[in-house]
## 1
Amino acid sequence: MEILKKKIIRLGAMSLVIFSCSAPKAEQALHFHEAFADKFFIGTALNTAQIAGGDTVSMAVVRQHFNAIVPENCMKSENIQPHEGVFDFELPDKFVAFGEANNMHINGHTLIWHSQTPRWFFVDSLKNDVSREVMIQRMRDHIFTVVGRYKGRVHTWDVVNEAVMDDGTLRPSKFLEIIGEDYLQLAFQFANEADPEAKLYYNDYSMAIPAKREGVVNMVKNLQAAGVQIDGIGMQGHVGLESPSLEEFEKSIVAFSDLGVKVLITEWDMTVLPSPWENTGADIANRFVYRPEMDPYRAGLPADVAAQFNERALGFFKLFVKYQDQIDRVTFWGVNDAQSWKNDWPIKGRMDYTLLFDRNNQPKDVVYEIVALGSKK
Ligand code: XIL
């Protein structure tokens, strides 16, 4: 919020009116990440426009308030290796350079994922599934080329994304189908070989569901038993106003850190819109048809819903602060409400209010409360 100050300077008979902009003291001093400097990184995802330089306004917010970044899409395999052996590093290079220039923690997202992986990855020239050997080789080439390029520069990697179903079983992805269960182990091994210094993470959504929590714990235990380096578990944190409960979320933080790995909150956002389905997950393959009644806040967010959002966001942060020794980073999936992927998923074209900065890049009231919480010694 900028206050327009009017100064009237009198010069004899002449009066000069000078307008100057100045922000109130509290806001001038507000640097979200600094309040958490002794606890965990405060991160945000960067989209294509931001990385390419087409959105300087929100990038100013990024520099002021965040000290960690993750690419929203440009490092996913469909973008970084759209055709076999053809890599596009233009945006990823810019993304990494921005992080380095601003002294930020840089997380790479993501190496092995069932979504946003190009079709060629799994098939031969006749469009038949490739053999286990070819699939392993492709996985190895992909990981070595991408991780290798940013060796020593990308600090942490989401090596495998979303390999576990809500019931705790392994997702029947092409990786599992063609390679078998050890694709998980191989992915982590390749990433470790490509950059032995990088910290390696498993990342997933709906991690507060008890069966999924258990499935992830078992999977990570198996990886650890196989001698694989795994440094952390990312809880995406695409949450709603009602679910998941903070209690179940907390149980997962505890269960994961009990494995001796770090916990990361990797993609936090909170939808305020009605859900078209029972499920509150984030499988991007699920989509629903637009209906106006599913998009109730086009004219603005009612005060009571905004208050609910603020209270729950603060509740999540209280939890994160409680587990500051276990949590290394809290990252938001975008900077401001206008950019949030939730405007287009699971229903395209809605108006959601999921993040901590509004459509004008202004911090919501709760940011001041969160910063006060983080600043407490
Ligand atoms: C989303 C992006 O935000 C969208 O722009 C894209 O169209 C689909 O993917 N889990 C993840 C993220 O790990 O990569 C997804 O990002 C959201 C769910």
## 2
Amino acid sequence: MNIVLLAPPAAGKGTQAKILKDEYQLVHISTGDLLREASKQDTPLGKKIQMQMESGGLVDDEIVLEALKLRIDQRDCQNGFILDGVPRNLYQAKEIDSLLEKKHRQIDYVFYFETKLDTLKNRIMGRRVCEKCGYVYNVTDPQVQPKKEGLCDICGSALKERKDDTIEVFEKRYQTYLESTMPLIEYYEANHNLYHIDCNRMIPEITEEIKEIVRKRDDQND
Ligand code: AMP
């Protein structure tokens, strides 16, 4: 089973991806995480990625698609994966479809996370990320607050704000989302199974709705 999570920045796709990967034994592929790792390298490519990410725009398609291809080709992706943050534009969506087709694979579910703009802004301001293991928390949301202030529940390392989690960069990222990513809804509605998910709710309710959709499709296919 291969899943795409389509959502504006800070809609909670990372949180759902972590829950769903355990539920269905899938690999969680976040291009944001892959690029953040690549941006740490002290090379012209690393610096370019860092600059593009901090501007709130998109990183070059070729860079993103190359990183994605390498990840999908790894053995652990055989059982399926969840794409979080990719595709971000029509070109990427078509490239991913043709890449999968060559491997006789496909995107089975596209979940489109609908979220109010105010909710997104609050989440951006409260998001904290573990500098060591990358686990994501939100200090404004009791559901995903760390147990000890400023420290990761899992590895105990310090939590930090992401450099691009400022209101100014968020405005740019949201604009990029409207211009580049929103057209994907029409594409996936026409070519794949796209499901609208209301994400202005509690985390377990959102997960339950997704699981119900998968259950129903499984029943139909039996
Ligand atoms: P995210 O962690 O998904 O919020 O991504 C953080 C930043 O990484 C984005 O604002 C982009 O600059 C970059 N990025 C992540 N995924 C992609 C992608 N599929 N295409 C282009 N840029 C991306």
## 3
Amino acid sequence: MRRVYKPSAGGIHPREASRYIASSAGEALKTCLGDAGIGPGEVSVVAFSRGPGLGPCLRTGATLARALASFLRVPLVGVNHGVAHIEAGRRYGGAVDPVVLYVSGGTTQVIAFVKGLYRILGETEDIAVGNFLDAFAREAGLGFPGGPIVQELAAKGRSLVDLPYTVKGMNISLSGPLTRLKALLKTCTLEDLCFSVQETVFSMLVEVSERAMALLGKEELLLTGGVACNTRLREMCAEMSRQRGAAFNTLEPRLCVDNGVMIAWTGLLAYGAGQRLEPSESYVLPRWRVDKMDIPWRQE
Ligand code: FE2
């Protein structure tokens, strides 16, 4: 099952979101156990997302996980949310040792496994691409979330409007394009703007990903995160990979967006490699970057 908090107005409100999680958790747990056809006694380990993310939401999840692990008398494992996106891509998306383009509301990173860690090779210097699409859609009066609406309108766009192409080394920046877009709202059609947003910003993402692949000699790309649901971005990543003779992997949309499966699977990997978290030590890490989680289940 999947239930998603939708802000009543404006952006996400952390406390409101955490209350939503607390009120949905019981039903979610019951449904998941029911769907899996197992009883609580058959659970052997409890994994939870320890970070990164919004503090109140992470703490709500951690509290539930602690309570559950103590009640069931099973070990607790803390998982990095970004690492979980990648491991889900390796488990369910067919990727083995990819360069990862991880694009979501809060994150825009190019990552690869190098010398024992998932290292960040490039990222946004300001706004994450999902957040950028939401902000543009809000300015244009298109509603939330922005990505799907932008994709729909972009399909009807005809002419490419000139937007800043802001690749900076291995990083990108999106505040410049966002400022320009706000000004262009008065003179261009929404269809053309959405089309131009996708072509320009996605090209920046693909360029940085390709450079990482060339640099590391990895001939495999994994696209994941909520923005990975965008069909144009998928097309562009597939085309770049094809031209390099590289493999392109992504997941079905329900596994690209945030989900419990990715946390559970990564928890199993971590547990299998001996990782455990004492409940008394299981504080959350709202700024936990992917390169700060030990990955003992992978060999170089
Ligand atoms: Fe995510």
## 4
Amino acid sequence: MEVKVPLKVILSGEHAVVYGHPAVAAAIDMWTRVRAEPHDSTVISTRYFGFEAGIRVERRSDGWTVVSEDLLNEFSYLVEAVNEAERMGANVDAKIDIHCEGPPGSGLGTSASVVCGIIVALLKLSGLEPEREEVREAIRNVEKRVQGRASWTDATVVTMGGVVKVKGEDVSKLNGIEPPMVVCYSGEPGPTAEALEKVERLRRKAPDVVEGLMERIGEVAEEVASAVEDGNVEKVGLLMNVNHGLLSALGVSTLRIDEIVNVARRSGALGAKVTGAGTGGCAVAVFEDEEPARRVAETLRAVGYDAWVVRTVSGGYRTSDSGA
Ligand code: MEV
């Protein structure tokens, strides 16, 4: 069977959302495909964009554990996803092949998408039909265990799809524009746990300043949500630029992300910003039409980056028996 899970971008509000402020995020037409079939032991192989590795996990007396040498933080999500699926009633060993169209640590929700795919696949192979809400909670549990803290953003987007506003435990779908976007990878992974820790260290050193920045980020996200619903893509772009400045102040942009953001703005984007946890990973830019989006993606490729023109997708993960 196959579970196909969309990746995501955050249009506004990352990091501050972890501290209870609002964020706006969208599911995009880049996918993680998780294929699974019953097997005599549980074996997971992964193929992310630009990165190839595999792991072997084994059941020990204290639960599932990684037994391969080849460790990256991303693998903790895989193992915890298998553990979480077992807690939810999964009882099969499976051969799991993961193909993710985004690079790991790219800020595109690759971890949440992979966790979602593994949990849904193992439950379905065990004859269970999990509700989307259960899957959403399970993804957040895994993210919290691996990262220390997590908002509901990624778990919500990969299960519900579309454009969503998240604030604490409240989530709502936003109906309005679904503009063409360009996602561009800086070539440097930015692991979420480290980015979250960096912001938290700054918050401990300068709590008033950081809380002030987060309140501003929250205000911008509220306005982005209204602009999305009003169909005002130009305003969404302008506010994304403001949001990028605030995220830079939190220390989560990088030289390369700043370069991507500046190239995108100068070559026709209405707005551009770092997306997701930052400290590497991706930037996202928005456009009125597909044509300038394609041009900007080409310009970014010409200066050496990987760039994709993407659209939002409605609906979250989907399953098929065939894997076709
Ligand atoms: C994750 O895509 C973005 C962060 O805000 C973390 C979270 O929301 O859990 C950095």
